[in-house]
Structures are given as C-alpha cells and as structure tokens.
Amino acid sequence: MIFYVLLLLLALLALLGRPRGLPPGPWGLPLLGYLPWIDPKAPHLTLARLARKFGPIYSLTLGRVCAIVLTDPRTIRRLLAKDATSGRAPLYVTHGIMHGYGLICAEGALWRDQRKFVHNWLRSAGGTKLGGRRKLMELLILQHAQELVQHIDAALKRHAVDPMEALRHHLGSLVNQLVFGRRYQRDDPTWIWLQELQEEGCKLIGVAGPLNFLPLLRFLPTYKRTMSFLVEGQRKSHQYYQKLAKEVEPLVPLDRNQSLDALPSLLEEFLREKRLKSGTEDGHRFYSDRQMDHLLADIFGASLDTTLTTLRWFLLFLGVNQDVQRELRLEIEAVVGKRAPSLEDLAAMPFLEACIAETQRIRSVVPLGVPHGALEDLEVDGYRIPKGSLILLLQWAIHMDEAQHRDPERFNPRRFLDAEGRFCKGEFFMPFQTGKRMCVGDELAKEIMFLFTASLFQSFRVQVVGEPELEGVCGITLSPQPYQVVFQSLA
Q1: pTM (whole model) above 0.85
Q2: Which of 16, 19, 262, 403 could serve as a FRET partner for 191 with CA atoms 20 to 30 Å apart?
Q3: Around Cβ 296, how many Cβ atoms within 10 Å?
Q4: How confident is the model at residue 258 (pLDDT cuts 50, 70, 90)?
Q5: Which residues are annotated as a binding site for heme?
Q6: 456: nearest Cα among 128, 129, 163, 135
Q7: Torsion sign, CA atoms 53, 59, 61, 62
Q8: Greater confidence, 99 or 271?
Q9: Which residues bind heme (predicted)?
Q10: The three-state (H, E, C) secondary structure of 322-390, written as one string
Q11: Where are the beta strands (DSSP E) in 141-190?
Q12: Which residues pair with 464 in a beta bridge?
C-alpha cells in the first residue's frame, strides 16, 4: 500500500512540475521521466503507441530531458525549416563521445561549414543529380555491384546462406573507396576489425537508451563495458585514420582538377581543404585533425550502415514475396535486358523504385529519426517547445500510419505507383528526413540502392529459407534478424 501511495505522489510531483504550454503526453517519474516504460528492444513501438493515444505531437520526459515527438509530416516539414531546430539533441553517449565534432553531432558554424564541404565533395565525386562526374560514380558503383554478383555466382549460389557478409564486404568496399580512397581484400585483418567495430557500435548506441539520459549509469558494470567499448573503438579507429592521412597527405594536389584517382575521396578532399585554409581562422576551427577523424567516422558509418540495412531488408522482403519479385524481374528484363543497368534506366523502372521505397517504408532504417535539438524556445501548432528540448521525428509512426498506408504490415510496392504506373512517393514518406539537416547523401544512397538491386535481380532469383523473423533488432538502425536465402542463377 505504501508503495502505491509513493508512486502516486511521485506522479503528482511530475505533473505539477510539467512546464505549461507543452504538448500533451504521459506523466513520468522524477529523475527518470518515462524511461521505465520505454521498451529498450523496440522503443519505436512504445513511442508509436503513445502517438496513437496523445496525437501527432506529444511530449514526455526522458531522464531530465524534455522530448517532443512528432508524427505529422506537415508539422515536421514546417518545424524543421527553421534554423532554431538545426541543433542536436543532448544525448550523453553521442555528445560524450563525439563532443560536437563531425557532422552528425555538430551544430552552428561548424555544422554549416562541414555540411557545405561534404555536399561539395559529393558533387565533385558524382554523388548528386547534377554534375559531370555522375557517370564516373555510376561506373564505380557498378564495378562493386558486379563484383558482388560474381562472388555470389562463384561461391554462394544454390546454397542456403546468410547474405550479410557478402553484402557488407562489397558495399563496404565501395564506401571505403569513396571515403578513404582505398579497398581491402575480403580477409584483410584491418577490414574485418572495422566491420566488427561498426556492427557492434551500431547495436550499442541506441537513441532511446537510458545511458543517453542518465549519465550516472556509466558507472554500472553493463554500461561501463558499453562506454569502454565505444571509447576504445573510437580511439583506435581515429589512430588508423591519422595513419591513412599521413600516407595520403603528401600526394594530395592543391589543384582540384587533378586527383589521386578519377573520383576524389572524402579524405583527399578534406586534406586538400585543410592545406588551402591553413593559417586561417576557418582552417583552425573547421579542419583540425580531431574534426577530420569524427567526420570520416560519421560519413563512413552512416553510409555503410543505412545502405547495408536497407539492402538486407530489400532482399528479405523480395525473397518472401515471390509474386513481387517476379514482377520486378520482368521489369528489369524488359528495360535492361542482358546489359549492365544504368542510372538513366531509373526513370523507366518505376516498379523497382517502388520496391525500394516500400522497403524503406515498411522497415524504417532509422525508426526514431535522427533527433534534433531546439536552439531556442519555439511554437508549433499552438504548443511550446522549450529551448534545449529533444525533437524526435518518429519515422516509424509516419510510415506505419494506417490512415495513410492501408494494411501497413503488408509489403505492397504498388502503394507508390499512381494510376498510370508512375512512381509517386507522397508526403507521408520521408526516409531521408527533411529540412535543413536531412541526409546530405540521399542521392548517392539512391544511386547505390538502384544499381545494386537491379544488378542482383537481373542475375538471380532469391528464395528465403524457412519462416524469417520480420520485426528487426533496434540499435541506431532497425536491422533484420539473421536470415538465409538461396540465390538461383537466371542465366
């Protein structure tokens, strides 16, 4: 009886301490907020249930952090167009490790400069819609996609295999070439270590994890091991980046029309920019060794993990839905035939584009979005968002909204096709988020997904073995559970 009285008193204290003007939401406990009720294995499901109860904008406390959760795309687009929402949320794990460096956790002048720098690098490398090097980027992506096809054909076809290792190696080889300007053999110890570090790190850094909001937990054995792994992994990977930089820097030409390769790597471009701006205030602030280490880690990790996860879900859902797969192969055969696919084919292949979009919808790779931070007091839909609040764009709830996506758990690419069969994504679809901090590499990700999926299903019929689990495992990204497929050659 005493326990329930205390619980009621704590709840009343929490309600009385709730700032006025906030959106509605559940009460929480002092110090802990709503954290005890967040499912650590599926936080997106907990938050989606609250959205159904409290509406498209609601608030809750996580530890001592005020969190505003949004599930209406129109409100999200309106809010994220403001400079005041371009901050980053005060999450202990990311801020405690990254200290505001890189691109993902950067804010203010550093973020603006580095986002512009990364965008310019992508444009010079052919990773945007416009630019003279787009064809070179296409050839580079195709090279890695075809090497994946050749590896499957030589070593994996007709056997039940988990495609994870093959996909990660060949996608990773592409990302390594783009970010660092180098490739690794499949059995290279450094590459194996980098893959393991990336995979484990993505599992441990969860947006809704208690450690992000209760830093004192870092002294408990479980969380202490987590932080030790992340900090030590970061230290060693940054040492490796510095080693690569020392090897590359003497070779980097200052003339941007010259390059170590046909396409400039991110590392090469950063070192060039660092030399051009040496001795200036911008060079000191934005092109330090520490910033380089964090930026390389951000772009490498975000590019590999999100694209790999999407491709794994794509294979899984196409392997489960054989009727969809047959229709996809017919489109590829009609448009591409036996030649290599090209980015110019995309406009003539709406069903493949719809299959990719449906994969991104049904299993949002980043179900909680990438949290933003309010840099000043804001108002949205009559509610107040206090300065310092965490702003969550709940992609899962948007993409699984029954009012907008009928039978949302059914894999149905035709929901992205109009009456004439043309691709049509609609406003309730935002896999790369929106606003000033939307994914800077969205076009490159689309190029990679299109050319890899077209190459794979041009060559193979994919059959899933057994009854796979489709819920996924939630870390930074929502990844599939391990599954097995059989690749059957179409030749």
Answers
A1: yes
A2: 262
A3: 23
A4: low
A5: 439
A6: 163
A7: positive
A8: 271
A9: 439
A10: HHHHHHHHHHHHHHCCCCCCCHHHHHHCHHHHHHHHHHHHHCCCCCCCCCEECCCCEEECCEEECCCCE
A11: 160-161
A12: 485
